[in-house]
Amino acid sequence: MSDETPAVPVISVEGVTKLYRRTMPGDRLRTLKSALVGRNLTNGLRPDEAIAALEGVDFTVGRGEAFGIIGGNGSGKSTMLKLVAGMLKPTTGRIVVAGRVAALIELGAGFHPEISGRENVFINGAVLGLTRKEIESRYADIVEFSGLGDFMEEPVKNYSSGMYVRLGFAVAVHTNPDVLLVDEVLAVGDEAFAHRCLRRIEEFLASGRTLLLVSHSLDLVEGVCDRVMWLENGHQRLVGEPRRVIDAYRQEVAEKEGEEHKAALQQRQEDPASEDPELRWGSQEAEITSIRLLVGGEERYHVESGEPVVFEIRARAAQALDDFVFGVAVATPRGTEVWGTNTDLEGYVAGVFDGEATVRLACPALRLGPGDYVVDVAVHSKEGAPYDYQKRALAFTVTARAGGIGTYLPEHGWEFTGGLKWAGRKTLDP
Amino acid sequence: MFRVAAQLFRYRGLLATLTSRELKARYRGSVLGFLWSLANPLLLLAVYTFVFSVVFKARSQGADPYALFLVSGLFPWIWTSASTLEGAMSLVASSGLIRKAVFPAELIPMVSVFSNLVHFLFALPIVFTALVAGRILGYNVGGISAVALPAIVLIHLPLVAGLALGFSALTVHFKDVRDLLGNLLTLMFFLTPILFPLDSISHLRYVWWAVRLNPFTPYILSYQEALFWGRFPEPSLWLQMATVSLVAWSLGAGLFERLRETLVEAA
């Protein structure tokens, strides 16, 4: 449960870099030469001919430890798992794994589609290093765990994806490996099976075995793992306590989304022709020229729940107007209104609007639940006749450290009295 | 090549399971099922006999009955060529298995070798029956020398295994191998004294040498000696077989070993 490296590592990865060869037409001879001479596919390649799937990755995992790897698609997670499994060799660096490894890399991999689940158990078990007798003695347990009793004589090609995972996981854990490598596949099983897997993983870890888990399900990783590594484009961004690493990862994902929202907004404002007529209408007697989201004084489109934000609208009236209302409405991307208001509702009586003007709607603390939101802005007459109505004028992403369900995240606290006692409380902040 | 041998020994149980699965899978869904293992060689025998004794009237030069001479060399050859061809394609065909799961890759071409060996062994009762029938009909064929057969098969095995292993790894990098190999094996077939006794071409000096120097020839000659002529193969034949087998295994398994680490990525 710490950032320190374990005393006796079961998995030790030192300065590992893995290059893949770019596929180039008419290159088969050189590939073969490289394979024969260098025993790899990247021998003597120019840098532009290779892609680094992993670069300079270091970590160790100890006995009884669950280590998680997170990161976006193509960040090198699966390559890392295949390296630890011994399927791939690192281009440079060293990987040492103590003990027997069982790997669930891909759904149904290692199964022969044409033959029965029963025979596949025996083949799979043998690949994992068990003798026929050992498999026979565990067969009943495997069937029981997988819950596939009636289907064991069916060819596995008729299995559903969930059944593949059940069987694969059942065989893998019953072979008692020292190290279990799991890539994502657990997400396919149903709720009941997922729970059974988690219990089994707990037992597995408690008996001093080691788990390496790759997943996009951050909640699963946080729930299971003792330490987490975040990979990005083959580089190790952060290793350590799950909450800290996952929060940092989530934060960055939100920032990227915020940047995308910003880019989309800018593109629309710079090139009004690209605007979807469905999303903007009005008489144009007054025109909204731009809208920005300011968070703590800085323009950005990812917000930590509770941060102060300002919706800033710039508008222009070609001729002086004496009847005008400014409005802002926040909704979820699927259209559920979350909050909306306008100057009329809040009692502002129109005087005169002529030329350029800036309207700011400030919220000292925007207490929205985590998720994406879209904002509509409008300037219209008191009767509601639109001068300029912009639907989904901007979008932003909200993150929230303390989770929660729904779109509203008020400040809150728990109080307890009476015959109630808590064993403790986990810290939520890094 | 030692590692390949060690892996094969370590996973021998799995190899047996996979081979029997392969055999079962081959006949799944067919009406005759395993009977095809007997029917195939019989039909093949009928076709070759018809073509070469009726249509082409091959010079048998004392190799009578021709059909018996033919099968004693043809079935071992089919084992060799089918294993090599199937083995060559086996890693590419099973790329899902080695790319996505931890799997001892050398088993895959070896399954081709052993499943085809089983087909060969299934054809032997037909050969023996035919030999006995031939003797009853008064032909001087076969004899006690047939007991040498297991030894010949055993010394033949490393050759077939070496070819399957080496070409399987090469095909991963070079899909062209499949087409090259098909044609090469056809050429080899005609350069091996299967359709004709070696002596029958002694007047064609260069062809005779080409056939005699063909590395497959000592094996075919030995099978023909033991099965058809009823003689134990001469020591020189054993020596030639041992040499070719050793070289083929070393090259094939060595090449496989050399390319092993790139197979997962390239398959």
Word description of this protein:
The complex is a heterodimer of chains A (430) and B (267). Chain A has 430 residues and is of the alpha/beta class. Chain A has a domain at 282-399: abc- transporter (atp binding component) like domain (Coagulation Factor XIII, Chain A, domain 1, Distorted Sandwich). Chain A contains eight helices and 19 strands. In chain A, the strands form four sheets. Chain A has a six-stranded mixed beta sheet with strand order 5-6-7-3-8-9, sandwiched between helices. In chain A, strands 10, 13, 15, 16, 18 and 19 form a six-stranded mixed beta sheet that branches. In chain A, β8 and β9 form a beta hairpin. Chain A is elongated and about 90 Å long. With 267 residues, chain B is mainly alpha-helical. Chain B has helices spanning 2-10, 12-27, 36-55, 66-93, 95-100, 107-136, 149-173, 176-190, 205-213, 217-229, 235-266. The model of chain B has no long low-confidence stretch (mean pLDDT 88). At the A-B interface, α1, β5 and α3 of A face α2, α5 and α11 of B.
Question: What attributes does this structure have?
Answer:
heterodimer; A: 430 residues; alpha/beta; Coagulation Factor XIII, Chain A, domain 1; six-stranded mixed sheet; 8 helices; 19 strands; 26% helix; 33% strand; B: 267 residues; mainly alpha; globular
User: For this entry, what is the oligomeric state of its chains?
Assistant: heterodimer
Order of helices and strands of chain B: HHHHHHHHHHH
Mean pLDDT of chain A: 87
Shape of chain B: globular
Contiguous uncertain segments of 5+ residues of chain A? none
Strand content of chain A: 25-35%
What is the total tally of β strands of chain A? Answer: 19
Q: Let me know the average pLDDT of chain B.
A: 88
How many angstroms does the end-to-end distance of chain A come to? 14 Å
What series of H and E elements makes up the topology of chain A?
Answer: EHEEHEEHHHEHEHEEHEEEEEEEEEE
CATH class of the domain at 282-399 in chain A: Mainly Beta
Note poorly predicted spans of chain B: none
* Fraction of residues in helix of chain A: 25-40%
The number of helical elements of chain A comes to 8
Q: What would CATH call the architecture of the domain at 282-399 in chain A?
A: Distorted Sandwich
Here the CATH topology of the domain at 282-399 in chain A equals Coagulation Factor XIII, Chain A, domain 1
| Number of helices, counting only DSSP H or I runs of 4 residues or more of chain B | 11
Which structural category fits the helices and strands of chain A?
Answer: alpha/beta
